[in-house]
C-alpha cells in the first residue's frame, strides 16, 4: 500500500491507513495467498451463473467475486459441509463394497448402479409475453440456454399441478408449474396460471437448436368463454 503523502504524515514516514483501506488490503492479500494454494478451475463446487455471480453448490451461497468465494471456502460452514460430504461418500463406498461381497458370496449377479450426474447449476433463461393478434389469445415464450448440455441430450418439459409440488405450501389451485429439465443442469420450474393450454398444431411448439444450444417453448392459453349477458325483460307496452 502507498502510505506516502497522507494527511498528518511526514515525508518518507508513511501515514496511518484508514480502517477500510486496511481491511481492503487484508482481503486482497488473503485472496492472493488462497489463489496460490487453491485452483478454482479444479473446484467442483464453484459455479458462475448467468448474472456473473459465483455460487457454491455445496453450501448454496452466492458471492460477488472470486475473493469472496475463497473466503467462504476457508470458513466453518464450507469446511463442515466438506466433512459431511466426505463422510457420506465414504459410507456410500463402504455400502457398495459390502453389497458386492454379499452378491459374490450368494452367487447373484450384480446389477449396474445408476450413474448420477452432478448438477452444474441453473441455465440462463428469458420469458416473453405474447399475444395472437387474430384470436386475442395470451401466451408465453420461454428461451433457455444450455451451453454445457450433455452429449445427445435434448431438453424435456412437463406440466405439474400445484398439488404435486412441495415448495409452495399450501398449494394454490390457481397456478400450475412448467418444469424444463436437461442434464447436467438443475431443473427449472416456472409458475404460470392454471389455465387450459392450447395444444393445437402451431399454437404449442418446442425447438432445440443443437448448434447454439438454445431451447425455445411457446404456449398459448385457451380463451375462457364469456358468460352470456342475462336477457332484460321486455318493456311494457302502453295502451293509448
Distance between the termini: 106 Å
The assigned CATH architecture of the domain at 124-220 is Sandwich
Could you tell me the strand content as a percent range? Answer: 15-25%
CA radius of gyration is 30 Å
Number of helices: 3
Unreliable spans are 226-232
E-strand count: 10
Major sheet attributes: 4 strands, antiparallel
User: What percent of residues adopt helix (DSSP H or I)?
Assistant: 10-25%
Would you tell me which CATH topology of the domain at 124-220 applies?
Immunoglobulin-like
CATH class of the domain at 124-220: Mainly Beta
**What's the rounded overall pLDDT mean?**
80
Written as H for each helix and E for each strand, in order along the chain, the element string is: HEEEHHEEEEEEE
Which structural class is indicated by helix and strand composition? alpha+beta
Label the overall shape: extended
Structure description:
The structure is a single chain. Helix 1 (19-37) packs across helix 2. This protein is an alpha+beta fold and 240 residues long. It has a domain at 124-220: Immunoglobulin-like (Sandwich). Strands 4-5-10-9 form a 4-stranded antiparallel β-sheet, with no helix packed on it. A 3-stranded antiparallel β-sheet has the order 1-2-3. Helix content is 24%, strand content 23%. The protein has helices spanning 19-37, 66-73, 76-106, and strands spanning 46-48, 54-56, 61-63, 124-131, 138-145, 156-161, 175-181, 188-193, 205-209, 214-220. It is extended. The longest helix is centred in the middle third of the chain and has 31 residues, at 76-106.
